[in-house]
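Supplementary material to the annual report.
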Amino acid sequence: MAESRLTESLIQSLGDQLAPVRRLPPPWVRTALWLLVVLAMAGGLLMHYGAAHMVQRWTAEPDIAMAGLGAVITAVCAAWAAFALGVPGRPARWAWLPLPGLLLWVGASGLGCLRDWIAPAMPVANVHQAGDCLVFIITFSIPLSALLVWLLRRACPLRPVLTAVMIGLASAAASAALLEICHAFAVAATDLLMHALAVAIVVVVNAAMGGRLLQPALK
Amino acid sequence: MTATLTAPRMMGLDSVLPRLVRTDSTVSDAAVPTGDMQERQRAAWMAAAQDGDRRAYERVLAASVSLIRSVARRQGVALDLLDDVVQETLLTLHRVRHTYDPSRSYDAWLAALAARRAIDALRSQGRRGHREVHDERAFDLHPDADDATAAAEREQEARRLREAIASLPPGQREAVEQLGLKERSLAEASAETGRQTGALKVNLHRAMKALRARFHGEP
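Predicted assembly:
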C-alpha cells in the first residue's frame, strides 16, 4: 500500500510540474522537412554539374534511371519509417516500407553489372573511380544521418536499433541518389560493390550507435 | 525484442490518413462499447494535458495505472516489482507526453511505453539475480563471528553511501539530504530550498533510482 501511495504522490507531483507541450509533428511532416534538405543538396549539385550529363546517361541506360528512382523511393520510405518508429505504439512492420524501393534500386543496379555485354562501348568505372563513389556516399550520409538523428531525438524510438537501420538506409539511399547527378561513368561490378559497401557501412554504423544516440528520453 | 514491443492494438501503416483507418470516430457513442468510450476519454484527457490541463493530466495518469500494471503482468513482471514499473512508466510518460498524437490510440501509445519499462525492469532484475546469491540457511549458520569486522564493514558501507549521495546531481542530492537524511517535511524542504514540492518528490524518486542502480549495478 505504501508503494501505491508513492504512485499517488508521484501522479500529484507530475501534475505540479505539468507545462503545455508542443506536439511532435506527424512523421510525414518531419520526412518532408528532411527531404527539403536533400532537395537543397540536389539543387546545389545540379547547379554545379548541370543536368545534361545525367539526362544523357539516363537516356542511354534506362536501368540506371530506374536504379536512381529506386534509391529515391528507398530514401523517402526509410526516412518515413524511421520517423514512424520514433512514435511509441506504432507497429514494427513500418520497417518493411522501404523494401519495394530497395528491391527496385538493387535490381536495377544489378543490371549495370551486365554493362560490358549489353553496351561494351560505354566507359565503365575503374577501382579508383569506384572508390570515389564510396567516399561520396559516406560523406553525404554523415550530415543526412546526423539531421535524421537530431530530428528523432525529440521523439521516443522504443526500437532504437531498427530505427537507426532505417536512418542509415535513408541517408545512404539519398546519397546514392545524389551521386546520380554527378556520376561520370556506367555502373560496373566494382562500382556496384562499392555502392553496396558504402550503404552497408552507413547502415551498420547507424545501427551500432542507435541505442546511444536515439533514446535521451528513456535514460 | 521487436515482437515483445509491438503494441497490442495493431494500426494501419498510413498515419497520414488516420480517418480512413479509424472509422470509429464516425460511430455514435451509443453504439460504442464502454471500453472504447473509456479509451476515448483517456485520449481526450491526454490531449488536454498536452495543452497544460493539470486536472485532466492527473485523471489520465490515475486511469493509466491499471493498464500499465496489466501490460507489465503480461510481460512477466513479478507482483513486487509492478509498482516500480508503474512509476517508471509514469515518469517516462511525463517526459515524452509530446509524442502522443490525439488522433491515435492512447492505450497503444501507453502500452508501448509500459512494455518497454517492464522489459527494462526484467533485465535489471535478471542482472541482479546473477550477481546475488540468496541462501538463508547458510546466512543463519554463519553469523558474523567478528563484531569488529562487521562494524568496519558497516562503516565502509556508510561511507560508500555518503560518496554515492555526494556524486548525485545537485537537485537530486538536495532532495535526498532534505527529505531522507534530515527527515524534513515536503513543505519545510520546499521553504528551505525554494523548490516546488513536486520537483523535490521527482528528484527524490530519481535519486533513489540512481542509488539503487549504483548499489545493484544497474545501468
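Chain A has a mean pLDDT of 83.
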